């Protein structure tokens, strides 16, 4: 089936994204990896809206919403990172460790 | 038949419209007001908007379930009940914020109030939609607003760090929910929950069922995060500690209630056909029970070694998420009467957690530290405050004549009725463990010497908030039958079946 190659691509992207969020030290890369995860889901939606069990346009529409939300999320992530950078003066995510217990 | 926007009775949207109009209006008013004018007025306007929305929710009772906007948005007893709880919680948070003297938060005071309203709007959309796109947009509106609220004290490193952790882990959990939704969409070709339900019924038992599992397990990661249950809870202690206390209360109470409604709505509509094939009891119930048991164990044991009061309350709220997951988890075994016990516990949890956090904030602000030592000798300094805190702690610990006891009792009953004795045993054992850390407060308040012997002054809005929380906890504890009957009389099933005016999606 054609759809499996799209599903494989999105599964790989999602896994790379998750791996990056969990292991990368640079905070900006972490935000990139979150985008990868969200976009993996978008690929799924578009692939399913063409090759799904019941093809339908709703998948495309869903993607438009999630792209917008992902953009807002990235903007917010960067803004919070800048606010945090002013205090700790590093973008290494493993230095953000004042809260623990 | 084609329906247009004007075919619907849009008056049912009144609560949401009031909140969205107020949020927009407050932003504009803030721009027009002179710098010298107190931003308190914006908070008071926000509180008024929440109260007006509450009145509209009250007027909405007693009608047939009604679906609008192409069946994506529905008004039924389920959504009205949850909206009432959300509005009540937000109103108390706003009232408490009005008396809060947190100077760092006050730098962005008007933004704080409008963001609270947009977060509330997101929560209201979450409890009222029956369509994946709308549900996801509502979830993200709540999440994005909460990320900013957590980081609103820009001058504080711990606040910014909490916001960073929240935005990263929150986005990952949203991605998990979205990825899970994409498989649900792929199997059914629709984003309407009821149409999904029909297709899932056809798929159940075929080879495609594996994808249903995949979708469910991806989504439960995100769900677990949003209701802050173990093993997806790691963000909660850091975020609760780093955020300003009113924001913490909002996250612990309003955000969690909305997430519960969101989970229950998606799982009980989309996956309910699996009950007939037995998959529900084997897979879905079990995964919820495992998450519930883990949350109780992790929340209650890790709380034992916490010194920071807000962090301790975060672990307590993780444990409470575990208790509250028991009714939905055992639903397949005992039928549809999960709602009275779930909603009863949610309201009880709202009152006691909110009250405890407010008292912690009053005491900690005076002492200048959120450490447990801040409570030392509170009984000698402010006996009334100490007694009120003791009352909330008794309720959180689940001792008799409080709301927490009755709520926990009914949840325990649902675990026993479903013959999952191990779950009931874990619940009882972890509750006993929780006595230790709740009474840690009592030890400090009654048996330690106070360093500061002055009485703590409390402003009247705070008194009103604490009073409402005490009243709620007492009433739910003394006349539980009245509330359980009232909750039982609501037409919960209507929240999970098509309304009469549906387009047949």
From TrEMBL, chain B:
Protein name as catalogued: NADH-quinone oxidoreductase subunit N
Native species: Thermoactinomyces mirandus
Keyword Transmembrane: yes
Keyword Cell membrane appears in the UniProt entry: yes
Transmembrane segments: 12-33, 40-60, 80-98, 110-127, 133-152, 164-188, 208-228, 249-272, 284-303, 315-336, 342-364, 385-407, 419-438, 458-479
Family classification: Belongs to the complex I subunit 2 family.
Predominant location: membrane
GO MF: NADH dehydrogenase (quinone) (non-electrogenic) activity; NADH dehydrogenase (ubiquinone) activity; quinone binding
């Amino acid at each position: 089936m054609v759809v499996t190659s799209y599903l494989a691509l999105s599964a790989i992207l999602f896994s790379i994204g998750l791996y990056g969020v969990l292991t990368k030290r640079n905070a900006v890369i972490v935000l990139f990896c979150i985008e990868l995860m969200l976009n993996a889901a978008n690929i799924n939606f578009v692939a399913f809206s063409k090759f799904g069990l019941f093809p339908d346009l709703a998948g495309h529409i869903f993607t438009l919403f999630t792209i917008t939300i992902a953009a807002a999320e990235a903007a917010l992530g960067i803004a919070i990172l800048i606010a945090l950078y002013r205090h700790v003066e590093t973008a290494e995510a493993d230095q953000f460790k004042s809260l623990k217990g | 038949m084609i329906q247009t926007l004007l075919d619907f009775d849009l008056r049912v949207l009144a609560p949401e419209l009031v909140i969205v109009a107020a949020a927009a209006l407050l932003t504009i008013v803030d721009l027009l007001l002179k710098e010298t004018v107190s931003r308190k007025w914006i908070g008071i306007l926000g509180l008024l908007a929440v109260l007006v929305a509450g009145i509209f929710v009250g007027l909405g009772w007693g009608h047939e379930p009604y679906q609008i906007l192409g069946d994506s948005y529905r008004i039924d007893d389920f959504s009205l009940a949850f909206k009432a709880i959300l509005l009540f919680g937000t109103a108390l948070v706003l009232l408490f914020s009005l008396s809060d003297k947190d100077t760092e938060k006050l730098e962005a005071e008007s933004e704080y109030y409008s963001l609270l309203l947009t977060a509330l709007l997101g929560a209201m959309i979450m409890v009222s939609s029956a369509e994946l796109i709308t549900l996801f947009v509502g979830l993200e509106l709540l999440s994005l607003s909460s990320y900013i609220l957590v980081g609103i004290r820009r001058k504080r490193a711990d606040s910014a760090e909490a916001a960073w952790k929240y935005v990263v882990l929150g986005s990952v959990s949203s991605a998990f929910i979205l990825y899970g939704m994409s498989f649900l969409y792929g199997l059914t070709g629709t984003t309407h929950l009821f149409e999904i339900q029909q297709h899932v019924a056809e798929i159940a038992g075929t080879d495609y069922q594996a994808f249903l599992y995949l979708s469910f397990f991806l989504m439960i990661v995100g769900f677990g995060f949003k209701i802050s249950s173990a093993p997806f809870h790691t963000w909660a202690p850091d975020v609760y500690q780093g955020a300003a206390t009113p924001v913490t209360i909002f996250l612990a109470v309003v955000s969690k209630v909305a997430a519960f409604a969101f989970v229950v709505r998606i799982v009980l509509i989309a996956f309910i056909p699996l009950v007939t094939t037995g998959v529900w009891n084997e897979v879905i119930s079990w995964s919820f029970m495992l998450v519930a048991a883990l949350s109780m164990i992790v929340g209650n044991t890790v709380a034992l070694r916490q010194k920071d009061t807000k962090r301790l309350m975060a672990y307590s709220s993780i444990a409470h998420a575990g208790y509250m997951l028991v009714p939905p988890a055992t639903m397949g075994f005992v039928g549809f009467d999960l709602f009275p016990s779930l909603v009863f516990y949610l309201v009880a949890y709202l009152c006691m957690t909110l009250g405890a956090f407010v008292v912690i904030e009053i005491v900690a602000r005076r002492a200048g530290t959120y450490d447990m030592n801040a409570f030392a000798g509170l009984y000698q300094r402010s006996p009334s405050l100490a007694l009120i805190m003791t009352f909330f702690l008794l309720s959180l610990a689940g001792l008799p004549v409080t709301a927490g006891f009755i709520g926990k009792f009914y949840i325990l009953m649902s675990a026993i009725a479903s013959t999952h004795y191990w779950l009931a045993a874990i619940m009882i054992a972890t509750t006993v463990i929780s006595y230790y850390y709740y009474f840690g407060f009592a030890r400090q308040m009654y048996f330690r010497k106070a360093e500061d012997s002055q009485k703590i002054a409390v402003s009247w809005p705070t008194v009103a908030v604490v009073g409402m929380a005490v009243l709620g906890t007492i009433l739910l504890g003394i006349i539980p039958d009245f509330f359980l009957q009232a909750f039982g009389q609501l037409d919960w099933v209507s929240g999970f079946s098509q309304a009469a005016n549906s387009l047949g999606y």
